[in-house]
Amino acid sequence: MNGVIETTTQDNAQDYAIVVDHLVTYFGERRILDDVTVRVRRGEVLVVLGGSGCGKTTFLRHLIGLLQPYSGQIYIKGQEITRLTETQMNEIRKKMGMLFQGAALFNSMTLGDNVALPLREHTKLAESTIKIMSRIKLGLVGLTGFDEFKPAELSGGMKKRAGLARALAMDPEILFFDEPSAGLDPIIAAEIDELILKLKRAFKMTMVVVTHELASAFLIADSILMLDKGKVIAFGTPDDIRASTHPRVVQFLNRAADEEAQDDQKYLQLITGNKNV
Ligand SMILES: Nc1ncnc2c1ncn2[C@@H]1O[C@H](COP(=O)(O)OP(=O)(O)OP(=O)(O)O)[C@@H](O)[C@H]1O
Ligand SMILES: [Mg+2]
Asked: Which of 26, 27, 36 to mutate to test the pocket of ligand 1 (most atoms within 8 A of CB)?
């Protein structure tokens, strides 16, 4: 399924967690997303790759209904979301979890309260139940016993995991991640990848992950969407992407591999003090 996929209809939209059809967005006069068509099957991980400013975050914001397209359709679990009222959209958002780039935790609240927030807002569960549920979610991301900690007392990786616990609070069917491992060291970034794979295996969650990390993309993806200046330059399985002969795809994969090799080289020089490694 390399390249741009065929137009879909609402009938087969039911088979997918997410269907995006010919999505076009403008900011002012600028066409930011240009005819983006993509599908994500239930329980699969879609990774969105592309250079800075190519429209990845804009694409995510459309999927969670924060932006209205200029044209095109978006189906979430078979329901077209671009024509919904805010109340209807809020119902759908309860099935979605989002991990924002900076984790977006409330600094004045404990982790327990941060995770409990969506449950307090959207459910009528008893306070004792909410406490237990938020502890379970913190446990799921490896933060057992941290309920009383404030975000400032945590490392970057722990904050990301706490953000993930909050995104999981309402047991979402679809999870969205914007650069989950940006700014983390490689070992902590790998832990986030492990968590994503764990959620996929254990709960068959559908996930959309925006990332710059190529190694991570190929590890976690069932399918990869590559954007360039708002256009789809590749959409397919990791093997399809590796086999792509599209010049921009080849360039992106090579450049990213070069940058990684250079980082390794710099790191080795730093720890050995040897410029010839
Ligand atoms: N609210 C906005 N108003 C006007 N232009 C915007 C707005 N949001 C994004 N843009 C522009 O749209 C383009 C795509 O932005 P977007 O944030 O989606 O890129 P991105 O692929 O997520 O980049 P990065 O990898 O740096 O996060 C950029 O040129 C950006 O300047
Ligand atoms: Mg972005």
From this structure: 27
